[in-house]
What we know:
Chain A is an alpha/beta fold. Helix content of chain A is 30%, strand content 21%. The termini of chain A are far apart. Chain B has helices at 15-24, 56-88, 95-98; strands at 4-9, 29-35, 39-46. Chain B is elongated and about 55 Å long. Chains A and B meet through β2, α1, α3 and α4 of A and α2 of B.
Amino acid sequence: xxxxxxxxFVGSASSYQLLPLRFRRLPWDPARVFVSSAAGDWxxxxxxxxxxxxxxxxxxxxALMQDLQARHIVAGPLDTLTLTPLLSQLRTRKxxxxxxxxxxxxxxxxxxxxxCSYCQVSRQDTLKRQFDMRETxxxxxxxxxxxxxxxxxxxxxxxGEPLLNFEQVKALTELIQGRNRSEGRSLxxxxxxxxxxxxxxQLEFFGEHGFELSTSLDGPRLAS
Amino acid sequence: xxxxxxxxDAQFFSADVIARTVYRYTGDYYVxxxxxxxxxxxxxxxxxxxxxxxxxAERFQTDACDDRLREQIALQTGDxxxxxxxxxxxxxxxxxxxxx
Lengths: 224, 100
């Protein structure tokens, strides 16, 4: 039995489908390009090869074509076109859209006892209460929080030092839990605090409401 | 400051491509675009004297060609891109839709 030459088993040069892609020349080698797929997979090749690809002239049996297919930048002939792997990658990358943001940070005060060098907040003096979150905003905050469809909502109280406006932490927690009786989400409360001047009553409240405490121990080894 | 003038064939480059390429240069240059009968006339004036003007015309033309290639890619794959994105995020629902 005589076999046909290898070329007989290869489709015509144009028998591939271009999938959505982006490209950019490499700044240190403008003759080469970075090419990425819709899902963020990527490779580099000669710019000339990219042009060949776009014109439908890149040989389907080339090593580059195999690589492009593996990275979902190109798919095989139209009759065997399957987008399932690319779609699966895209779904994973866009999964955050399904529930919207799950982490919500509530800054109840910009006041703080400390001025840590790494802190991103424009920290205010402990006596300046005008830098506390106003209670009149509470209802609006709760409304906004439950607008997101995420089945899990994390509410993280931050500051400044959130314990300096503990009454607000308490009020919001109770308001959110009250609303959740009809919403039925899974709630997670976190408070990021220096723990400066924390009281037993506050700890009891956190215990009752299942709070997680987030803190950092700074300073020289002996102090921490 | 010294300006550089370029002419690009209006048959070969679309207005969108020219706009896209020109925008890329607005960080370093004042730009002016005029449409003549058969060409776009582009003037680039450096914002500050230290801007690198070396091979500026060549760089601009290369960028314009690359943007034209991107336009071709979008034409070839735009429908597929929309289809994929729609399928990828179809499970995302708003609260309003979820509760109905």
